[in-house]
């Protein structure tokens, strides 16, 4: 992996040429003054977030060096979304992540001649992305994480916790995929189990029906009742899909990748696949200004939203700046950095692609 991917030209200069020592000292003094001037400004205005208006010209993005000597890509258009309360932002993010990779499960367990019903909420990730599950556990303050080979699973099985913590979140911020159907099954099962006025036999029959029930063909989450169908533009979404939800969903399902366009050219791509819920991919395409249509791949039995269009890639770069929590954040930063510095440089992009592939296998 080329070290230039992670270190600035400034730092490289410092080590490669002692003749520039005075220039570097002066530069860091200036950075020091600017940084603490900003800190005082934030203190006076109660605003701790730096918003820097940048621009894109000839597909070159502006970058700002931060105090840890890494680079942060800044928003390009100077427009900033309303900063939500951290709890609200996390809960919307969690619903999006769950839509991408969550599971609401009703399990039947036979104990002698009786049946015991277990309800659970599960999120599964590769051990490579352990930090995203630890983030969820920390924010919720509940749950357990177990390891099975190269897979990690965050789960909540306690019915009281499901009722007191999870249900309020998923009731307030509805799931946008078919996972909504599974969530309602679990919620109804919990209600039946909590009902002290019906017999155990009745509970077993009703929960068994719930467990075996399947969503109708072309099922759409009721959350989409607030949208104007068919979807045509961002306004037709009517705020059904929020940015926090989309960030969570992309962390679970999205792919920032490099692919061969031909034998001498590697390009940047972004893709999503879904077995169901075409409407979700169509909405994401609208929000990210991806012009390619959602396609159905019969051979794989799933829908796909995919683009390598430069303008769409630049929209995506801007949209997801400083948003993600897990290892997808690192993949995104490498992907963005390589687009800015090495677009059309086959040798560099080839090395970076191999590095990311090895990273994912660890």
TrEMBL record:
Q: Which residues cross the membrane?
A: 21-38
Which Gene Ontology terms cover its molecular function?
endonuclease activity
| Keyword Chloroplast found | no
Q: Name one GO cellular component term.
A: mitochondrion
Q: Which InterPro entries match?
A: Homing_endonucl (IPR027434), LAGLIDADG_dom (IPR004860), LAGLIDADG_Endonuclease (IPR051289)
- Keywords of the record: Endonuclease, Hydrolase, Membrane, Mitochondrion, Nuclease, Transmembrane, Transmembrane helix
Question: Where is the secretion signal located?
Answer: none
Which segments constitute the Homing endonuclease LAGLIDADG domain? Answer: 94-189, 246-336
- One matching Pfam family is LAGLIDADG_1
Name recorded for this polypeptide: Intron-encoded LAGLIDADG endonuclease family protein
Q: Which organism is it from?
A: Talaromyces stipitatus (strain ATCC 10500 / CBS 375.48 / QM 6759 / NRRL 1006)
């Amino acid at each position: 992996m080329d070290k230039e991917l992670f270190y600035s030209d400034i730092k490289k200069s410092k080590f490669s040429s002692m003749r520039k020592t005075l220039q570097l000292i002066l530069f860091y003094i200036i950075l020091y003054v600017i940084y603490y001037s900003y800190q005082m400004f934030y203190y006076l205005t109660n605003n701790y977030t730096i918003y820097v208006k940048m621009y894109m010209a000839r597909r070159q993005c502006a970058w700002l060096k931060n105090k840890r000597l890494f680079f942060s890509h800044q928003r390009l258009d100077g427009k900033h979304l309303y900063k939500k309360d951290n709890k609200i932002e996390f809960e919307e993010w969690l619903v999006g992540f769950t839509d991408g990779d969550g599971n609401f499960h009703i399990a039947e367990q036979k104990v002698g001649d009786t049946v015991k019903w277990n309800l659970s909420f599960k999120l599964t990730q590769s051990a490579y992305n352990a930090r995203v599950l630890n983030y969820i556990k920390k924010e919720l303050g509940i749950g357990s994480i177990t390891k099975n080979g190269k897979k990690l699973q965050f789960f909540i099985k306690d019915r009281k916790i499901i009722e007191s913590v999870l249900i309020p979140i998923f009731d307030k911020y509805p799931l946008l995929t078919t996972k909504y159907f599974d969530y309602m099954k679990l919620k109804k099962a919990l209600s039946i189990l909590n009902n002290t006025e019906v017999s155990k036999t009745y509970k077993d029959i009703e929960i068994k029906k719930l467990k075996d029930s399947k969503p109708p063909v072309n099922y759409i989450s009721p959350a989409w009742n607030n949208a104007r169908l068919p979807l045509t533009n961002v306004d037709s979404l009517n705020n059904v899909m929020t940015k926090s939800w989309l960030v969570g969903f992309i962390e679970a399902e999205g792919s920032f990748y490099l692919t061969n366009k031909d034998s001498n050219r590697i390009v940047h791509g972004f893709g999503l696949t879904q077995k169901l819920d075409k409407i979700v991919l169509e909405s994401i395409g609208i929000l990210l200004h991806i012009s390619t249509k959602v396609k159905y791949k019969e051979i794989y039995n799933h829908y796909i939203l995919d683009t390598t269009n430069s303008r769409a890639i630049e929209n995506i770069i801007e949209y997801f700046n400083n948003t993600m929590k897990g290892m997808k954040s690192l993949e995104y930063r490498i992907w963005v950095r390589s687009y800015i510095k090495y677009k059309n440089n086959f040798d560099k992009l080839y090395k970076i692609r191999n590095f990311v592939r090895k990273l994912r296998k660890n």
